[in-house]
Protein 1
Amino acid sequence: MELDVYQRIKTVVKTNLGIDLEHYKDEQMRRRLDSWLVRSGMSSWDDYFARIKVDKDELLKFRNYLTINVTEFYRDTERWKHLQNIVFPMILKDAGPRGLRVWSAGCSIGAEPFTLGMILEELTPTRKHYILGTDLDKGAIARAMSGGAFITEEIRGLSPAQRANYLRPGGPPFYVVESLIKKITFREQNMISDTFEKDFDLIVCRNVVIYFTSETKDMLYRKFTGALRKGGILFIGGTEIIPHPQDFGLKSVGISFYQKI
Ligand SMILES: C[S@@+](CC[C@H](N)C(=O)[O-])C[C@H]1O[C@@H](n2cnc3c(N)ncnc32)[C@H](O)[C@@H]1O
């Protein structure tokens, strides 16, 4: 794709979808856009833009594609088991009798905050915690708030007991039960431009920053540290790493886990 075409797409996407592609890795995004145009069957971006002006459904699909909503319950089971068996007991002990403040940033259609809700219910059945799930994508948040729908691949990490306890009967597609939805506060939020709540014990931000430039990534790690309480934990994706965590006021406490110093 020519650079001037990419510049135009960036402007249209920013104006119509509120997404600033400046923060996303250039080459990767250009490749994705090229393949989207081929898949759409249109011969030029001009034709495609004319189409999304009148076809709101297509506009939403385009937005979903750009924001990449891929997710599943217990994505990277090993890391989630570490969270459940090592990290949560530690931060629960530090919290004493008060409930935890936990945030899934870039939560897509909710599998991640729902996983957090299940784990915390299993670990502390009688305690109340604040669990926040946010995403830039309005459609994804609306789906999360209605409890799904999830496809079979997205729930494969759940045990038979968890399926029985937390999913409504029937499916596919699968929906989580109302009592689990009620445990989560869902909100639309752009993590790049919006302000963050503070004093979190745990922030989970996985498989989101991989799409961002290194400057944007660094800016976000600083913002996340600012939103953690001292001793709070940042849980990042399996393919991500923070090479110099001390630059952000963090220290490594296991693969994918960083603690605010
Ligand atoms: C690949 S999904 C990851 C979902 C989940 N964290 C997981 O690992 O399963 C990436 C999500 O990040 C969201 N996202 C992308 N840019 C964002 C931004 N600037 N602010 C908030 N969410 C964003 C997308 O809408 C998408 O739902």
Note: Residues 67 and 137 are 7 Å apart (CA to CA).
Protein 2
Amino acid sequence: MTRTIALITGASSGIGAEYARLLADDHDLVLVARRADRLGDFAEELRARGAAVEVLPADLGTHEGITAVTGRLAAGDVRLLVSNAGAGGYAPLVDVDPADIDRLLTLNAVAPIQLVRAALPGMLATGEGAIITVASLLAFSGGLNDPRAPRRTLYAAAKAATVAFTRTLTGELADTPIRTQLLLPGVVATEWNEGVGRDIPWAMTPQDVASASLAGLRLGETVCAPGLENQAAALEALLAAESALLTGGNQPTPATRYRGPQA
Ligand SMILES: NC(=O)c1ccc[n+]([C@@H]2O[C@H](COP(=O)([O-])OP(=O)(O)OC[C@H]3O[C@@H](n4cnc5c(N)ncnc54)[C@H](OP(=O)(O)O)[C@@H]3O)[C@@H](O)[C@H]2O)c1
């Protein structure tokens, strides 16, 4: 059996570790995260399953860390990129340390784009490749005013950037053999956010999330929301709403309400 190489970020726990477990039977792996000790132990587990495993410790909240991973991707041999590393940094914006704004947006939004940019030349040259970017349903929570929801301005902004990036990229790559998938998990029971997901009754397991994503990739789904039963209808409604804004708002004159005597 020919093994292709998958690079997974955030592979030291949660959803990323489950992708690695599911892929280990027929892929060699490059595992990225900060905790080198955890990655080392995990690599041993995966090697026992026959995978060749490289451990690449890197902090993707820094440009040095991103460069370490893009340098590896520049070798051109990675055929599946799973850009999964992320952090919440939940807090009211006024309480966020300004340095953390850069760090969180770099990790959650800049790193996925830089990694895809680095992986694409090798994929396009060989005519084979798939890219999964892990966003979140919270990317669509800008209008949600539920006091139980986390304080999430930075996180929602970063994941919304990943949503727009991946969906637009899908169109850009439509005429190539490269497949893309935007993954939109809901609450998942991982170490995320001090593991609060483990106490939330509707949380999905990380195994189910990673497994649904890979099944969705095989089905040719460019968007995968693992818990969403009628995904096609939801995506159609999203497109219709986007089109109403995009086409409806692109007019040569301001809307009527801005031109009356009250305006
Ligand atoms: N859990 C949820 O409810 C949920 C819902 C929607 C979306 N998601 C998304 O799913 C993805 C995976 O999260 P998870 O739930 O599996 O949480 P998790 O168990 O906390 O895993 C996060 C992973 O990202 C890595 N990571 C964090 N900061 C990093 C950094 N600066 N540089 C490199 N790696 C870093 C962590 O490894 P190290 O600490 O070793 O660096 C870990 O491997 C994230 O993108 C998250 O936004 C999660």
Note: The domain at 4-258 is CATH 3.40.50.720 (Rossmann fold).
